[in-house]
């Protein structure tokens, strides 16, 4: 007989105004167990998590029915607690890791202060005692040199380290239940693998229950014991992970699995005919000045080191690598949003690196960019009609009826209804907003589009639709894409060729099948070994040990 669940949600219903976001949801989680909530954006996953934490009211929602029982012995119904009563349990007995660590951490408080605040409030520690405990908490989540990190600010840490700080804060009081809301979505595959392994290790040590929210079925297979599949606020299926992957009962679960990119199973894209490159990058380099400390001279830190590649019309080059390897700096440097230190960028036979301001502005019509966060990329005060045609207005002065006609054509091109022209960005889903960003890039008929993590924040089915649209447009219009991503399975699906970037350099490049089937560089092998398998782990399977940086240096000659 199983022990009583440590968290039991019964018939939970959550509403935002007249809209029901979660409808009659029930599940239990036992100590030491991981339950995954999966589904597309808008399925009700995050609304469920916020309701369990009783933060839903701060987001404009409310619990209209149901109970949320916390504790195996003498359980407490969190749904009935006042905000003041909830403060005793929130962050103490039940904690949450949010999706974006940079916005979850206070940018003006040092790491030690943020960790110490939790310990002082819930554990009654003094400042000195809290600092010692905070250092121990950072060491527990495998952050190197924890004493030094206590005095740093969030912006001084990488994405992976910030996420580890969030985990340390959430686990500081050794909670009974941990809610992890998309904690690895924005992380590269090697950092994701390390974070998942860390969570499993800490779970075994503390014995806590984990409610893990994700849209990545590969992560579900890696970490979950049981799965709840949600769609439009309804429960589609509840199953043990192995049973779900072996024989999903609901059509929606089958659709989710079909949309999940699987490394080695995506059909390879046929190579484009040989032609003159539309984009050539030769020996591009960029360094940034960093303070050497008090009364010390600034030091130059290289971000991009002598990178060269070319892309032909109608071709997609996938650029992959860990966070901090220089991918985004490279993309901004080749567009001269950041000035390069050395090298050449030749676009459609014209060198960009020597152009003056006016000539550069004209040349940028040939190379456009689609950024990672579509909401931050779109002006919230502008209607879609003006947003997606703004580049055409700036480059050619398009106005009036011609501009309105272009807006209609662009919306049709990205499969959005013409009525969308009169709406604002906040009235669209994440996938629809990314389509608007793509439409805006297409408004000046570019020869090259740089897609910088353009689908990493989208759920798998939405990402599949957006990448399929990009491929369709490429075949119709002959556009070249530089597709930057940390998701190698997605890169495999969309790319003709792949370049692997490590510490500012391209360490391996070639046709997609060649690089993924027969990788030569140890760093490429490390990236591939860290990709979560979309199949549940078998009993007794050993955790994959990733090569260390030292191993990479010794075996691959990377400096």
UniProtKB/TrEMBL annotation:
<dbReference type="GO" id="GO:0005524">
    <property type="term" value="F:ATP binding"/>
</dbReference>
<dbReference type="InterPro" id="IPR050319">
    <property type="entry name" value="ABC_transp_ATP-bind"/>
</dbReference>
<keyword id="KW-0547">Nucleotide-binding</keyword>
<keyword id="KW-0813">Transport</keyword>
<dbReference type="GO" id="GO:0016887">
    <property type="term" value="F:ATP hydrolysis activity"/>
</dbReference>
<dbReference type="GO" id="GO:0055085">
    <property type="term" value="P:transmembrane transport"/>
</dbReference>
<dbReference type="InterPro" id="IPR017871">
    <property type="entry name" value="ABC_transporter-like_CS"/>
</dbReference>
<dbReference type="Pfam" id="PF00005">
    <property type="entry name" value="ABC_tran"/>
</dbReference>
<dbReference type="InterPro" id="IPR027417">
    <property type="entry name" value="P-loop_NTPase"/>
</dbReference>
<dbReference type="GO" id="GO:0015833">
    <property type="term" value="P:peptide transport"/>
</dbReference>
<dbReference type="Pfam" id="PF08352">
    <property type="entry name" value="oligo_HPY"/>
</dbReference>
<feature type="domain" description="ABC transporter">
    <location>
        <begin position="279"/>
        <end position="528"/>
    </location>
</feature>
<keyword id="KW-0067">ATP-binding</keyword>
<dbReference type="InterPro" id="IPR003593">
    <property type="entry name" value="AAA+_ATPase"/>
</dbReference>
<dbReference type="InterPro" id="IPR013563">
    <property type="entry name" value="Oligopep_ABC_C"/>
</dbReference>
<dbReference type="InterPro" id="IPR003439">
    <property type="entry name" value="ABC_transporter-like_ATP-bd"/>
</dbReference>
<comment type="similarity">
    <text>Belongs to the ABC transporter superfamily.</text>
</comment>
<dbReference type="GO" id="GO:0005886">
    <property type="term" value="C:plasma membrane"/>
</dbReference>
<protein>
    <submittedName>
        <fullName>ABC transporter ATP-binding protein</fullName>
    </submittedName>
</protein>
<feature type="domain" description="ABC transporter">
    <location>
        <begin position="7"/>
        <end position="257"/>
    </location>
</feature>
């Amino acid at each position: 007989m199983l022990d009583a669940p440590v968290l039991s949600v019964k018939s939970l219903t959550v509403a935002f105004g007249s809209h029901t976001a979660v409808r009659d949801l029930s599940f239990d989680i036992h100590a030491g167990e991981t339950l995954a909530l999966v589904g597309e954006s808008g399925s009700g996953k995050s609304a469920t998590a916020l309701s369990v934490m009783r933060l839903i009211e701060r987001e404009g929602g409310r619990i209209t029915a149901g109970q949320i029982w916390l504790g195996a012995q003498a359980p407490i119904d969190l749904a009935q607690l006042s905000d003041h009563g909830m403060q005793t349990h929130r962050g103490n007995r039940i904690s949450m890791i949010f999706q974006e660590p940079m916005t979850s951490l206070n940018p003006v408080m040092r790491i030690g202060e943020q960790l110490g605040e939790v310990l002082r409030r819930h554990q009654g520690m003094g400042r000195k005692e809290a600092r010692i405990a905070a250092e121990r908490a950072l060491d527990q989540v495998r952050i190197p040199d924890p004493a030094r990190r206590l005095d740093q600010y969030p912006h001084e840490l990488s994405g992976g380290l910030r996420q580890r700080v969030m985990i340390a804060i959430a686990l500081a009081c050794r909670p009974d239940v941990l809610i992890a809301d998309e904690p690895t979505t924005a992380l590269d595959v090697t950092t994701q693998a390390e974070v998942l392994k860390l969570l499993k290790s800490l779970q075994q040590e503390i014995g806590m229950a984990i409610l893990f929210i994700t849209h990545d079925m590969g992560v579900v297979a890696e970490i979950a014991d049981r799965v709840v599949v949600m769609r439009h606020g309804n429960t589609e299926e509840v199953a043990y992970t192995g049973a779900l992957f072996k024989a999903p009962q609901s059509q929606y679960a089958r659709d989710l699995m079909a949309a999940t990119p699987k490394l080695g199973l995506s059909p390879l894209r046929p190579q484009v005919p040989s032609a003159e490159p539309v984009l050539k990058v030769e020996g591009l380099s960029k360094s940034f000045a960093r303070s050497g400390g008090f009364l010390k001279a600034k030091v130059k830190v290289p971000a991009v080191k002598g990178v060269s590649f070319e892309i032909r019309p109608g071709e997609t080059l996938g650029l992959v690598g860990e966070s901090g390897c220089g991918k985004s700096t490279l993309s901004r440097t080749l567009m001269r949003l950041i000035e390069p230190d050395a090298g050449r960028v030749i676009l459609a036979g014209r060198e960009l690196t020597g152009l003056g301001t006016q000539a550069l502005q004209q040349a940028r019509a040939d190379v456009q960019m689609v950024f990672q966060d579509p909401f931050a990329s779109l002006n919230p005060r502008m209607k879609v009609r003006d947003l997606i045609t703004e580049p055409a207005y700036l480059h050619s002065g398009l106005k009036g009826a011609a501009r309105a006609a272009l807006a209609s054509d662009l919306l049709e091109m990205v499969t959005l209804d013409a009525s969308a022209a009169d709406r604002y960005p906040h009235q669209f889903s994440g996938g629809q907003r990314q389509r608007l960003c793509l439409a805006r890039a297409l408004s000046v008929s570019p020869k090259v589009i740089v897609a910088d993590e353009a689908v990493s924040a989208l759920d798998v089915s939405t990402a599949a639709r957006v990448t399929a649209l990009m491929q369709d447009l490429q075949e119709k219009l002959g556009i070249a894409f530089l597709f930057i991503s940390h998701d190698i399975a997605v890169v495999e699906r969309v790319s003709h060729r792949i370049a692997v970037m490590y510490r500012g350099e391209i360490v391996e490049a070639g046709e997609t099948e060649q690089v993924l089937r027969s990788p030569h560089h140890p760093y490429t092998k490390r990236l591939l070994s860290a990709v979560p398998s979309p199949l549940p782990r078998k009993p007794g399977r050993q955790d994959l040990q990733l090569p260390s940086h030292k191993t990479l240096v010794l075996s691959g000659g990377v400096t």
